[in-house]
Amino acid sequence: MSGRAIRSIAILGGGIVGLSAAAAFARALPQLAVTVIDTPLDPAALADRLPGSTSAIHRFHASIGVDEQALLRAGAALPRLGLRFENWSAAAGTWYHVHGEHGALAGKIPFHQLWARARREGRAEAWHLYAPAGALAEAGKFVHPQPGTPLAAFDYALRLEPGRYRELLAALADRLRVTRFAGAFGGVERRANGDLAALLLEDGRRVEADLYVDASGPAAPLAAVFSNRFEDWRGALPFDRVEIGEAPPSAADPNDTVIGGTRDWQFASSLPGKTLLGRIHASSDGNDDSSIAIRRGRRAEPWIRKVLALGDAAVALDPLHWPNLHLAQSGIARAIELLPGRDCHPVETAEYNRRSRAEAERMRDFQALHYLRAGAMIEVPESLAHVLEQFERRGRFVHQDEDGLLEEVWIAALLGLGVVPHAIDALASAVPADATASRMAEMRVGLARLPGRLPPYADYLLRCGARGT
Amino acid sequence: MQQPRKRVVVVGGGTAGWMAASAIAKLLPHAASVELIESAEIGIVGVGEATLPHLRAFIQTLGLDEIRFMAATHATYKLGIEFRDFGKPGDCYLHPFGDFGRPLDDVPFLHWWLRMHALGQGGDLGEYCVANVMAAQRRFAPPAADPETLLSTYGYAYQFDATRFGPYLRIFAEANGVTRTEGRIVSVERHPETGDVTAVVLESGGRIHGDLFVDCSGFRSLLLGDALGEAWEDWSHWLPCDRAMALPCTSPPGEIEPLTRATAMPAGWRWRIPLQHRVGNGYVYSSAHLSEDEASAAILAAVEGAPLADPRVLRFKAGRRKRSWSHNVIAVGLASGFLEPLESTSIYLVQVAIQQLIDLFPIGAIEVADRAEFNAQVDYEYDRIRDFLILHYHASTRDDSAFWRDVRHTAIPNSLTEKIELFRRAGRIQRYSRGLFFAPSWIAVLIGQGIMPKGWDQRVDAANPQELGPALERLRGQIAREVATLPGHRAALGLPA
Predict the structure, then answer these.
(1) Which of A47, A411, A445, A446 has CB atoms 3.0–4.6 Å from A328's, for a disulfide?
(2) How far apart are CA A16 and CA A163, in angstroms?
(3) DSSP character for A423?
(4) Looking at the DSSP assignment, which residues form a beta bridge with residue B83?
(5) How far apart are CA A188 and CA A198, in angstroms?
(6) For A92, which DSSP code?
(7) Strands B6-11 and B32-38, how do they pair?
(8) A8-79+160-232+297-362 domain in CATH 3.50.50.60?
(9) What's the DSSP call for residue B222?
């Protein structure tokens, strides 16, 4: 590889996304010279500003050497168990979206099939109540998964305090000998063949590298030099504005709250020392200056020639289920896995782009599912229609390539949102209904006992040494 | 709530027919009754003697006892498929049912090996694959259960006498309630409005009605092809072999090889499948490049043992029906399509169709959406296997016959070009979550046929070759030592040495 390996990377953007990329590249490829140009933060960069993550964040943190305990102690993060949905759709009351095992009694028959039959017969409670994490969520409690106990098979995410999290990443980048300096995008210098020769800063400085990353936010001035082809998802996602506010810390809640409405939805998320509030709505519904635009779509080619777009420069969705930072981290990991040679040959970047598109579309579909069930008039993407049709008819979950969301995550949403299969598979229908119902009742009783023995969330956090709760 | 049981009529009693009947009767007794029609006068193709590891799951799902199944079908164990002379004369590599090494620091093993290989060190990639080393030493033991151990990093399949597999399953199927009707189908009756098949009429005059018809009639495709006229998608421009000359022979003395061998021939390739009691052989060739007499002479000259029959020719075409499920007819196996047995996929494709049929078994009326889903899943499998097969012909430098000159210069699907080019750059395999042939299979064939990546994952660059070299050496040594403790293949089968 030595003749064609990438030797240096210049990252435009020193927010969470840019620094995450810097730390990840520097750690995975210690031979690389990594430079971060700390541009002023674009207020519309959702991946940098919104603090939510998914349960995939642990793997990313492990890969860059970020320790969750350290984040808690620094007041940079709080664990999040699930999302509490209130008033989201007429069909569903309050329910919890949690990650992890739901039901565990049917051998090879998917539990949701049996649940669906019992539900239609009026013999099943809400889906989340058959999950250990759901029982905890409803009781407002949290512990880390405990292997070998009934509280083993679930997952959780982190809520990040953007300022402190960024500081921590900056310190990590410094330890990894990343070069950082402040600057603003001033233009580019191109070679005769059209490739980028250097990145020019406003103050006249010139930054040369083998690979350039645009992590500067949705405007993506560097990536835009080569192409601005954009795949617009406004038809599938109705809201294009988010207002963010803060409230003093209320009693810390292990769940984020999502409250639906006819013309908007709101969230509340406990962070160290405060509660983050948000309202997501449509600009056509009366504009306001304080809100941030949500682009809802993706750059058609996030990797084009020697420029890789990450974060909002590549893809943006609204905050529902916190996809933005997740997609940024996933893109960073994928870029390292598929890092092309110095020439950034189209054969190599095409595979990155193929996988990025598939992953982002699944996330878009996941959000669109929620809006569809809330009664919004949306254009249903074909891929989502396919998932819905198969699930609604017979509880068959269609797995699609590059879906970063586990099947259990989809099923928790589908059932939580009231998409109860009309029938169940022939295979599942062989399992006796009465015996299933009584097993389910027993399971429910066992799970309901779990939270009683556990400390309140705030006490547990103190034991973990978490700051600012 | 409970739907009335569907009447399922399985047409044809070969491997596909009895597999389908067994699975439906065993898994969906509450949802279906199964009647199978077969005619003793119609022979079965029955050359599908080599299987893939997926068949084990089928055997387990049915609750069959592996030892008895293997005894009944004279089966041997199979650790992979060996390809000889494909890339160029003299080449030899195994497509193993197992992994090459283990990932290190999240980086697939291949890249660490590529780095050392570029320095002229690191040995053969196959030395890092337990299945490879075991097959070369003609040993076998079932994989270890503990995923931490090296001896857990492979799978296995069977090589069996396909003419015995159907009859073996028949006993099981009949015990599970399948009714068997002997007879030759002379006509098919269809509903005047919907076009659905309502009944098949036997030579005896008997009429068998059904709700669902599973067409396992082989190449004839009696229902899907003949009666419903489902269009054929021809792939012979990519895969021109259209004949097989089969010839069983006696086993050579000594240890049985736990592998299927495919050897390139002037107008195609030849299989060799060692069973407990004999060796199956066959020459898959292109009739445009070789006559039947020439093929017959070639296979007689090539086999190692004494012939146990006269060479028998089979005729086929590469391709598939546009849809495997049309109206209320689901084609399984050769009635749905054919891909030459170069990668032992025939029974796998039967299994896929059965699995999808069970997953999508009609709950009430047949829904268009379920049919479309079934066909999409089957297409996905066919397309991926097709590309993988074409690779064996494309990635060759053979220049010694008109056949090889033709096939290696044939234009290939874009999907395959992309896969090859991506690998050539830095050893990466396009990732998919479903279907057949994951990274180790592609790596084995690509490298085995001379497509060596120019680069590798750059995370490997930071490693010091002075340390990496000895680390690889230790891994090779460990694999060799652990495999050396395993029993020989005959002993594993309980046969005298």
Answers:
(1) A47
(2) 9
(3) S
(4) B93, B262
(5) 6
(6) B
(7) parallel
(8) yes
(9) I
Which of A339, A351, A401 is facing B422, going by the closest CB pair?
A351
Q: Do A341 and B456 touch (CB under 8 A)?
A: no
pTM, entire model:
0.95
Distances (CA, A) of A401 to A396, B92, B202: 16, 34, 45
CB contact under 8 A, B363 and A426: yes
Can you read off the two tokens belonging to residue A59? 């793997």
What are the φ/ψ torsions at residue B158 (nearest 5 degrees)? -125, 155
Q: Could you write out the DSSP letters of every residue in A248-264? A: ---S--SEEEEEE-SSE
Does the distance separating the beta carbons of B455 and A5 come in below 8 Å?
yes
Residue B187 makes CB contacts below 8 A (sequence gap 6+) with B200, B201
Which of A29, A336, A401 is closest, CB to CB, to B433? Answer: A401
Burial class (CB in 10 A: 0-12, 13-18, 19+), B115: buried
Interface confidence (ipTM) of the complex: 0.92
Interface of B with A (CB under 8 A): 2, 27-32, 106, 115, 358-364, 367, 369-370, 373, 418, 421-422, 425-426, 428, 430-434, 454-462
Residues contacting A335, CB < 8 A, separation 6+? A21, A303, A308, A310, A352
Q: What six digits make up the tokens of A74?
A: 């620094």
Burial class (CB in 10 A: 0-12, 13-18, 19+), B472: buried
A-chain residue closest to B428, CA distance: A338
Test A29 with B459 for CB contact under 8 angstroms. yes
Residues of A in contact with B460 (CB under 8 A): 1
For chain A, domain boundaries? 8-79+160-232+297-362
Q: What is the pLDDT of residue B1?
A: 46
Most B CBs within 10 Å, among A394, A405, A431, to test the B interface:
A394
DSSP label at residue B266: T
- State CA B304 to chain mean position distance: 24
Each residue's pLDDT, cut to its tens digit, for chain B (497 residues) gives: 457 899 999 999 999 999 999 999 999 999 999 999 998 877 666 555 889 999 999 999 999 999 999 999 999 999 999 999 999 999 999 999 999 999 998 899 999 999 999 999 999 999 999 999 999 999 999 999 999 999 999 999 999 999 899 999 999 999 999 999 999 999 999 999 999 999 999 999 999 999 999 999 999 999 999 999 999 999 999 999 999 999 999 999 999 999 999 999 999 999 999 999 999 999 999 999 999 999 999 999 999 999 999 999 999 999 999 999 999 999 999 999 999 999 999 999 999 999 999 999 998 899 898 999 999 999 999 999 999 999 999 999 999 999 999 999 999 999 899 999 999 999 999 887 777 888 999 999 999 999 999 999 999 998 999 999 999 999 999 999 999 999 999 999 999 87
Q: Report which of A298, A294, A295, A293 is spatially closest to residue A360, judged by C-alpha positions.
A: A298
Is B419 one of the catalytic residues?
A: no
CA distance B342 to B50: 10
> What residues have CB less than 8 Å from B423, skipping those under 6 apart?
B429, B442, B443, B446, B451, B453
Q: Which one is catalytic: B6, B26, B78, B419? A: B78
Distance CA A431, CA B28 (A): 11
At residue A372, does pLDDT exceed 70?
yes
Q: Tokens 């254009």 correspond to what residue? A: A379
Structure tokens belonging to residue B265: 């021939």
Minimum-distance CB partner of A429 among B31, B115, B422: B31
Residues of chain A whose beta carbon is less than 8 angstroms from a beta carbon of chain B are 1-2, 4-6, 28-31, 63, 336-341, 345, 347-348, 350-351, 354-355, 389-390, 393-394, 396, 398-403, 423-427, 429-430
Chain B residues in contact with A30 (beta carbon < 8 A)? 462
Cβ <8 Å between A430 and B29: yes
